[in-house]
Write a structure and sequence with these properties.
Blueprint: E1 11-12, E2 17-21, E3 28-33, H1 35-41, E4 44-48, E5 55-56, E6 61-67, E7 71-75, E8 80-85, H2 88-91, H3 95-98, E9 107-111, H4 123-133
Antiparallel strand pairs: 1-2, 2-3, 3-9, 4-6, 5-8, 6-7, 8-9
Length: about 130
């Protein structure tokens, strides 16, 4: 049974990233990993994040999350430029486990094309994807 913690106001990828449009600047999105992903990883011990100013195409690896069990890549769900990183994850990577949709965000990205947001999964689409994934 898929996780029920799938906020309705976010967009999702099949790589288990979530995306939220920034309230202050609609060309900026906040990116993190889903509750499903952090549960699968277990206790997170390190988060490798990109540098501010780095540019990525959708699908590029932008970081790595390491847990006691394994390591998992984080991918750019959209093309754009990193404008802010969650530096607190350096000292407190467990925030991804404890509050993945709040304090556990990873980067803020200025989107190259805001219309690309429409190509990501809705909460229902992500829920359906998890059910099919098993």
């Amino acid at each position: 049974m898929p996780d029920s913690n799938i906020p309705e106001d976010l967009r999702y990828t099949k790589e288990h990233e979530w995306v939220k449009r920034d309230d202050a600047d609609h060309d900026v999105v906040i990116i993190g990993i889903t509750d499903h992903a952090q549960n699968a990883l277990g206790d997170i011990v390190h988060v490798e994040i990109p540098g501010v100013g780095e540019e990525y195409e959708a699908g590029d690896e932008i970081g790595v999350i390491e847990s006691a069990k394994s390591a998992s890549e984080v991918y750019a769900p959209l093309s754009g430029k990193v404008i802010e990183v969650n530096c607190s994850l350096d000292l407190h990577p467990e925030k991804v486990n404890e509050a993945t949709y709040e304090d556990g965000w990873i980067v803020k990205l200025r989107m190259q094309d805001p219309d690309d947001l429409d190509h990501l999964l809705s909460s229902d689409g992500y829920r359906h994807f998890l059910e099919e994934e098993g």
